[in-house]
Write a structure and sequence with these properties.
- With 153 residues, this protein is mainly α.
- The chain is 56% helix and 0% strand.
- The protein has helices at 2-20, 43-52, 54-57, 72-86, 100-107, 114-117, 127-152.
- The termini are far apart.
Length: 153
């Protein structure tokens, strides 16, 4: 009796998994064109941001193979859309409420999120690289903010 219930349960889970593959949300994810980026202080800052931030905060998202499988694709696409809505380095604008919060969120360990760090790959920064990214973000936004203010006058 128990074996029969387990067998039906396994079949039901497999049918559900195959069925949800029909829903295209996430599998058809794309990257819109890059419109504008911040004036990075140095190339190394951009390189670190690309590794640690761009998958969720740019129009240059790298979608790994498993992000094309439901329900992972749903979660991935939703996460990327929220990340781009909060901050998009590819559609950079000084309309962001608090530019200082970008470096601060990296300093406080909020970004990248802990689950993102669990995914293997070169996106995981060493402590030294993280510190360099923080310094670079602060430098980038201070330099760009001064240049923007000078252009306004």
């Amino acid at each position: 009796m128990v074996k029969r219930v387990i067998k039906y349960l396994v079949v039901a889970v497999l049918v559900a998994f195959v069925s949800i593959q029909i829903v295209p949300y996430g599998r058809t994810a794309s990257n819109p064109p890059v419109v504008n980026e911040p004036e990075w202080d140095i190339k190394a800052t951009r390189d670190l941001a690309v590794r640690a931030c761009f998958d969720c905060h740019s129009n240059e998202t790298h979608y790994p193979w498993y992000s094309r499988v439901e329900p992972v694709s749903w979660w991935t696409q939703n996460h990327v859309e929220e990340g781009r809505d909060d901050l998009n380095f590819s559609e950079w604008s000084w309309e962001y409420d608090d530019v200082d919060e970008i470096a601060e969120s990296v300093m406080e360990g909020e970004m990248p999120p802990n689950y993102y760090k669990l995914i293997p790959g070169d996106r995981n920064l060493s402590e030294r690289e993280r510190e360099n990214l923080i310094r670079g973000l602060i430098s980038t936004f201070n330099y760009s903010d001064k240049a923007r203010q000078a252009d306004d006058h």
